[in-house]
Amino acid sequence: MKTAILSDIHGNATALEAVLKDVDSCAVNMVLSLGDNIGYGPEPEKVIDILRSRKIPSVTGNHELGVTRPDFLPLFNPIARKSIEMTIDMLSENCIHHIENFPNAIVKDDLRFVHGFPPESPTKYLFELSDNEIENSLSVMVERYCFIGHTHDLEILILENDRLTRHPLEKGIFPLNPKNKYLINSGSVGQPRDGNSQAKYVIWDSITHELTVKYITYNIFDTVKKIYNAGLPDQHALRLL
Ligand SMILES: [Fe+2]
């Protein structure tokens, strides 16, 4: 059983289309999104339409909350808030209603999917937590594998015999030990912050116990042009280059 996990697409439909083309070539059984499908990027409605048309479920991210919950807006920095306000104007009522129904977490067998941090926080950042707090959360988590997004970084955290270790992730195939517990920070499709501007996503194979980290080349300049044309803050375009 192969599951493709996409995170932080951030309205970048060009990156999403390239990633899904790659997913289609990998004989994947299921695709999931870890949220922040919208915000920052120029085509939020198109991203949601693509996910809906392919029946790809998503958990809610903090940017979905920014769009659907006015009380969340003050929690964003001024640039992010501006892009969320512009995103609200770009979205149809039907789309906003659809986004409102995203759950905080999805659990499938031994896998947990959440935007920020388990068990189901869309807003908690991994870098806010001490290793001790992470250890405690993984200890009580029933599932062995938890996939998160939110920081736009790639990292794997392993709880082995009650001891936590952390390792940066990069492109490649990584065999995991089903006796351990794992927190997998899955990178970003549409707004990476790891110094490499390719779109990132991961595939989990529950038969071979292999995690594959994929880097996908796409037409970044197409997205950059669309960000400028939409009048979104320049920073969101510059970060892609
Ligand atoms: Fe994000």
Provide an overview of this structure.
This protein is 32% helix and 24% strand. The longest helix is centred in the middle third of the chain and has 13 residues, at 78-90. Helix 3 (62-68) packs across helix 5. It has helices at residues 13-24, 44-53, 62-68, 78-90, 93-100, 131-140, 220-230, 234-238; strands spanning 2-6, 30-33, 105-108, 111-114, 145-148, 154-160, 163-168, 172-175, 181-186, 199-205, 210-216. The relative contact order is 0.19. Strand 3 (105-108) and strand 4 form a beta hairpin. Strands 3-4-5-9-6-7 form a six-stranded mixed beta sheet, with helices on one face. It is globular. It has 241 residues and is an alpha/beta fold. It has eight helices and eleven strands. It starts with a strand and ends with a helix. It has a single domain (2-238), classed as 4-Layer Sandwich (Purple Acid Phosphatase, chain A, domain 2). Fe (ii) ion binds at residues 8, 10, 36, 61, 150, 152. Fe (ii) ion is lined by residues 8, 10, 36, 61, 150, 152.
In short:
The protein is an alpha/beta fold and 241 residues long.
Topology:
Layout: E1 2-6, H1 13-24, E2 30-33, H2 44-53, H3 62-68, H4 78-90, H5 93-100, E3 105-108, E4 111-114, H6 131-140, E5 145-148, E6 154-160, E7 163-168, E8 172-175, E9 181-186, E10 199-205, E11 210-216, H7 220-230, H8 234-238
Helix pairs in contact: 3-5
Fe (ii) ion binds near residues 10, 36, 150 and 152.
Distance between the termini: 35 Å
Output the radius of gyration: 17 Å
Broad shape: globular
What is the assigned CATH homologous superfamily?
A: Metallo-dependent phosphatases
Largest sheet: 6 strands, mixed
Share of residues in strands: 15-25%
The residue fraction in helices comes out at 25-40%
Bound molecules: fe (ii) ion
CATH level 1 name: Alpha Beta
Uncertain stretches? none
